[in-house]
Amino acid sequence: MTRKLERRLNTAMGVWQIIDGLVTIIYFGLIKLAPLTGKLGNAITEQASQTVNSSMFTLTCTFGSLLIGLGLLNLVSAKRYLKDGTTAKKHGLFLLGQGLFSYFVLDIPSMILGICSGVVYFAKNKALKQQAVAQS
Q1: Are 101 and 73 in contact (CB under 8 A)?
Q2: I need a labelling partner for 125 at 20 to 30 A (CA). Which of 23, 90, 95, 103 fits?
Q3: What is the pLDDT of residues 21-33, one digit of tens each?
């Protein structure tokens, strides 16, 4: 059995998480937290340095970096670990766990992709096991 559907779902989730992480860092971290409205000279640099050193900026950039890291991990796992005809429970549990994490942070597209990919992965694992039993 091919794992083409799981690879596509995993790749889509990885791309979405990278885009989501970049939007989080750039938009919410740099633009929303650093409004430079109508101030000139030293006031701009003072406000910018206060914003960059704030805990909200650190939290936003950390969360965005976590999303980018998970996205890269999904892209690597889709390319390297989702091979046709293999069964491994750890990868399916990882996908379901990532879907649960996305549920708690309200990242709905990642949640849907992660849970769907995990369920399809386990369904194909069961089919592969039954096929192996039937052949022997």
Answers
A1: no
A2: 103
A3: 999 988 887 776 6
pTM of the model: 0.80
CB 19 within 8 A of CB 31: no
CA proximity to 67, closest of 109, 96, 32: 109
DSSP for 83-135 reads: -TT---HHHHHHHHHHHHHHHHTT-HHHHHHHHHHHHHHHHHHHHHHHHHHHH
3-state percent helix, strand, coil for the chain, nearest multiple of 5: 80, 0, 20
State pLDDT tens for residues 61-72.
899 999 999 999
